[in-house]
Design goal:
- This protein is mainly alpha-helical.
- It has eight helices and no strands.
- It has two domains: 30 residues, no CATH class; 88 residues, Cytochrome c-like domain (Cytochrome Bc1 Complex, Chain D, domain 2).
- Helix content is 54%, strand content 0%.
- Helix 3 packs across helix 8 and helix 7 crosses helix 8.
Length: 125
């Protein structure tokens, strides 16, 4: 009887509608998305939201955290790989840790990628 009332609770959609809604909701969860394989795809999936497509930082994020501008970063200007590795792996402040998303090899490739990301457009001294 309980199953029948659950189906009736979804009205015209019935069980098929409930399953479709559940599949849609699960697809929105980050852990349920296919894992990006290439470094550019990983950057788009994990970094663009705050750091922008070219590392310039998203305006909304920059208001709260000016350090999101990778082009003005002293770590980037010095190409400080150990500091960048720590920051990506462990996170810092509002930036989450990515060691559970990226392998050590992927983190190294991400460092290469962001250091090359419009290298000629870096800001600062």
């Amino acid at each position: 009887m309980r199953a029948r009332s659950a189906v009736l609770a979804f009205g015209a959609f019935g069980a098929a509608g409930a399953l479709g809604l559940l599949a849609w909701a699960v697809a929105l969860l980050p852990g349920c998305q296919p894992r990006p394989k290439t470094t550019p795809d990983q950057y788009r999936a994990y970094c663009v939201r705050c750091h922008g497509a070219r590392g310039e930082g998203e305006p909304k994020t920059l208001k709260r955290n000016p350090a999101a501008d990778l082009l003005a970063s002293t770590m980037m200007a010095r190409a400080d790989r150990p500091a960048l590795r720590r920051r990506i792996s462990r996170g810092y402040g509002p930036m989450p840790a990515f060691s559970h998303y990226l392998s050590p090899e992927e983190i190294e490739r991400m460092i290469d990628y962001i250091l090359q990301l419009h290298a000629g457009q870096r800001k600062g001294p």
